Amino acid sequence: MPPLRFLIITTTLIGLLHYYIGSRLLSGLDWSSTVLWLGWLALALSALLQPVAFLARGLRSETLRDRVSWIAMTVMGLFSSLLVFTVLRDGLLLAVAGLHATGVVKVDFLWLERQTAFATLLIACVISLIGFFHARKLARVIHVSVPLRNLPAALHGFKIAQISDIHVGPTIKQPYLSRIVEAVNALEADLIAITGDLVDGRVHELAEHTRPLAQLSARHGSFFVTGNHEYYSGALAWIHELERLGIRVLLNEHVQLLHGEATLVVAGVTDYTAGSFYEDHHSDPQAAIAGAPAAAPKILLAHQPRSAEAAQAAGFDLQLSGHTHGGQFWPWKYFVPLQQPYVAGLHRLQDLWIYVSRGTGYWGPPNRFGSPSEITCLTLMPAQD
């Protein structure tokens, strides 16, 4: 679809959804005509800002680009909550109307519409404020023990610090990333895994802001796999930049780490969709494990959880993924299973363990409600047979 046509269709749809919100909520409020007109003006501005959130990237001035993105993305989060709760309100009113029609309950509909309209506005605003606070604060550390079969004694207690889906870009800059790096280094992990979607922007735009990654410190170093957003942002240039910062990028390959007297295989695949961007980047867990010692524990870094079936077939013991953000803010986590087999946390597929991070940053709206960001500290433990 041509970009202009897509923009027109998207803007029209967004405008209609804003009109739906206004007609359902503002008409139910017993406020002055001036306040109601201001409400309609705010909705109109919000409708115009939604496409601007994505078009702002084309602005030449970085300061203007970032300020516009901040406003547009924040408004987008509020709009999302307003839309969801307006739909839920209409569902409630419809159910009550049915009960009223059958004589089960008697309701003053004028009073109910006013109260629920105000409650919808209040709840959406409160959730957006709480979500903003949780999105901008430093991700908390989550400790997870992973039981692996036939784990050599030298690897008992091996610690992996995982960060994922930071999305350095218009609203996430160097100070935000520096705090993450400090928290990761404080874990004194044996290995650091970065499972994709690190950036939202080109190298020349964001190199200054990803510089703190050079300070990551772990016994066996830091490893990175591409996510879909790297491919939107010029993956080849980012691969070169990350390697310049001292981070090993794994492209359908593995390394063998000698830890004490034991060998640990750490592999990485390109993003599940990478083949549609570069033919030679097709995601391939089999290629990533080729030549690895059979008896060594094998860990796969794969951005999307849906790589799990191929990882299990290839013989991996543990897959570390991200991508889902755990839904990021309510109620979107309930829609993630439409695309991904796992939303967040530790799961098992036959002999393969899969851990899905909720992400260390956020994408789009600075909003995290019901799905907090995380820095994950995974500890390898022997399975209790």
Automatic annotation (TrEMBL):
Originating species: Methylophilus glucosoxydans
Keywords associated with the record: Hydrolase, Membrane, Metal-binding, Transmembrane, Transmembrane helix
Name used for this protein in its record: Metallophosphoesterase
InterPro entries xref list: Calcineurin-like_PHP (IPR004843), Metallo-depent_PP-like (IPR029052), Metallophosphoesterase_sf (IPR051158)
Superkingdom of the source species: Bacteria
CDD domains named among the record's database cross-references: MPP_YkuE_C
Domain Calcineurin-like phosphoesterase: start-end pairs: 158-326
SUPFAM superfamilies tied to this protein: Metallo-dependent phosphatases
Annotated Pfam families: Metallophos
Gene3D superfamilies linked to this entry: 3.60.21.10
Transmembrane annotation, as ranges: 6-22, 34-56, 68-85, 117-135
